[in-house]
Structures are given as C-alpha cells and as structure tokens.
Design goal:
7-stranded mixed β-sheet, globular
C-alpha cells in the first residue's frame, strides 16, 4: 500500500533551532520566557491546593505568557475548536502550551500531562498511519498546530504532534529549546539587561 509519509524532523543544534524559529516568526528567548513563567506559577501550588493545581497553574500562566510574548503584529490570540493558542494567519500556524512528561529526549516522544480534546486532534491532522515509528502522514491545508512543551525539569521543546485518543502519538517536527539547565539563563534578559524571571504576571480582566 502506498503511503505519502514524511520522517519526523528533530532539530537539536541551537543555531539551527534559532534559524527555524526565525522562519516561524518566533524566538527562543520569548518561548523560554513563557516556560519560566509557567514553572514559576507551578511552584506556587501548595499541599492545600487541589492535586492538579501545579499543572493547572502552569498551563494557565504558560498560555498567558505565550500570548504576552508574541501577540501583536503577525500573531493573534486564538481559541478556535477550544484550543487556547496564538495564530499567525500569514504562516498558517498556531502555537499552544502543554505540560508534558519528558521533553528533549531522543528516545521518548513527549506525552501531555492532561488529555487533549477532539478539537486539538482535528487540528493536528491525525491520519491513519500515525502509529508508524518516526514517520507521519504528510499534511496539507489548514493551520499547523505547534505546542510549547515543558516538563517538570524545565526542559522545553516546540513540537508539532499528531494527536489521537487525547494524547500525542507521534511528533512531526521537534525543536529542542532547552534541556532545563541554567545555561539558557544567559539569553533571558530584557532590553535593559535585567533578568526576566523577577516579575509577577499581571492578569487584567477585559
């Protein structure tokens, strides 16, 4: 049986990552700043909070931070099909936030820590042959859905997955942003040279 499939693309070298992000009109600095907001808010969960509070805090504020970093110009806030994301109409791509079990590991395909809905499954372009290891159906038309995937260590990647049964079944493209160590702190400075992690996000009700 003929199948029009392509191999999963994994980009690890930071120079190549930055080049690809430039094509997507995103920045590693902005994505890692959103990662840091999500981790900071996750740490605010206490034993008195519900058991899923850490993940919930991380998701809500990670989504806020992606929008805070990129909305404006080519990027717009997007909620189509129940997916809280940003979208770029010129490039036909969307970016959402997801907590995952393990990021930036060649031997492991990240899995979301909470179930994804039917809207996300449709948006991922799930196909019949999504179970083939390291290969996925070639996708045409519509918006391409990427996720900023962050694990509990702070490892982060920007990845376009196929979604089925509420989970990520195979990645289409993976951009490794950080292994979660302190080496990436050097790029997380604002225009005045100060660190980006010494702030509290201000959520304003519209």
């Amino acid at each position: 049986m003929h199948m029009d499939v392509v191999k999963t693309v994994v980009i690890r070298d930071l120079w190549d990552v930055d080049r690809r992000l430039s094509e997507l009109r995103l920045t590693r600095k902005g994505l890692l700043a959103a990662r840091d907001v999500a981790l900071h808010e996750s740490a605010n969960a206490t034993p008195f909070h519900p058991a899923n509070a850490a993940g919930t805090f991380s998701y809500h504020h990670g989504t806020w931070a992606i929008r805070d970093q990129f909305v404006g110009g080519d990027w717009k806030e997007d909620r189509v099909d129940g997916i809280e994301a940003i979208r770029n109409d010129a490039l036909k791509i969307k970016v959402a936030f997801s907590n995952v079990d393990l990021a930036c590991d060649d031997a492991h395909s990240p899995k979301p820590r909470s179930r994804k809905g039917a809207g996300a499954e449709r948006a991922s372009g799930c196909g019949l042959f999504a179970d083939l290891p390291h290969y996925i159906p070639r996708q045409t038309g519509g918006y391409l859905l990427y996720y900023l995937m962050v694990d509990e260590r702070g490892a982060a990647e920007l990845t376009r997955p196929v979604i089925r049964g509420g989970t990520f079944v195979v990645p289409i493209e993976r951009l490794y942003l950080s292994q979660g160590d302190e080496d990436d702190r050097a790029i997380l400075v604002d225009d005045d040279g100060g660190p980006l992690d010494n702030f509290d996000p201000q959520i304003v009700r519209k």
